[in-house]
Write a structure and sequence with these properties.
about 80 residues; 2 helices
Amino acid sequence: MNKKKIITASFIFTAMFTSAWAANEKTKRTYIDPDSLSGSKAEISETEEPFYLSNEEKRMLEKFKPREYIRIVNVNK
């Protein structure tokens, strides 16, 4: 009886962990590290700061700062 419970619990955990990992990989976002942008604009490549993004879009893609758990961005400007 205990063996059956252990196997069932292990299967459920593995299924949930695998589906969460797959969802994370599917919705992965790229982030712009503001610390790497300290150089001159001539030294920055397209991968660090895409030229086709507006300032609001760049702000949305920045990494969260310490203790910044949510970010409110006004998209309808």
